[in-house]
Each structure stands twice: as structure tokens, then as C-alpha cells.
Give the backbone structure.
Amino acid sequence: MRFAEAVRTCLRKYATFSGRATRSEYWWFVLFLILASAVAGVVDAALFGGDPTVADGAPEAGSGPVAGVFKLATLLPGIAAGWRRMHDTGRSGLHLVYPLIVMVGIATFAGATGAVGLESQAFQGVVGLVLVVALLVFVISPLLVLWWLTRPSQPGPNRFGPAPGEAL
């Protein structure tokens, strides 16, 4: 699948979470999102002024209104394409949100332990150990999701439907 075809397909399937997306479809769409976000940032700088860099000299990731509207408009198709990509590798789309699940779990655990008085040194040590392990999982989980997104398509039909391009 080529760049323009992938962008058209992902935008046409704006909120379609069923089916499968090939590796090329997903990654061409990701490239489109990155390039279009950069263009939106430049348009924001041109229309609304301001320096397109932050204090440390790194380029700003498009925080103006044009970039914001673009990001909001493409959030759902980006998630849907990733969801379908997970299906293409034979995994549930929920695998895409593992890092978010880990973040919610860490925040919930940290909040719950912070609300309870921790008088015991042993209990504080266990809580610290659990948080260290949870933070390690938090660091690894996005890398694992990225690795899953790069895996080859599962050949033939799977539980999420026929292979893309097989049955149209």
C-alpha cells in the first residue's frame, strides 16, 4: 500500500475498529500524522506569530489552534488504525492501550497508599518495591506495544477477519 492510499483508507475508516490494517497502511498513516502535525505547527507560527521553538531550543510540537484542531480531528482515526493493526497481528486492539492501563494502575495504587497512613517501615518498603516494579512495567509497556505494531501480518484469515487485500 502506498502513502496516499494508506491515508485515504485510514481517513475513510475514521472510526472503524473492526477488521485489519496492514503494516504499510498503519505506518504510512503514522508518517502522515507526523508530517501534517509539523505543517500545522508551521501554519500556527505563521498565522499567530510566536517562536516555533521552546526555551531549550527544541521544536515545539504544534501547540497552536490549527495543530490542536488537527490533532483532535485525527485522534480517533489514529487509534482506530492502531487497533486494526493489532488485529492484523492476531492480537486484541486492547493491547494498544496497555501503557494507559499501567498508568491508571500506578496512579490508583500510589493514591491509595498515599491516603493510608504508612507507619510501618516494612510496609513502606513493600510499597516502594511495588512502585519501582510498576514504573519498570510502565517504561517497558510502550516499547512492547511498538514492537507489536511492527510485527508482520498474520497470514490468512484470523479471528478479526480476512487478511487485508484477500477479500474485498
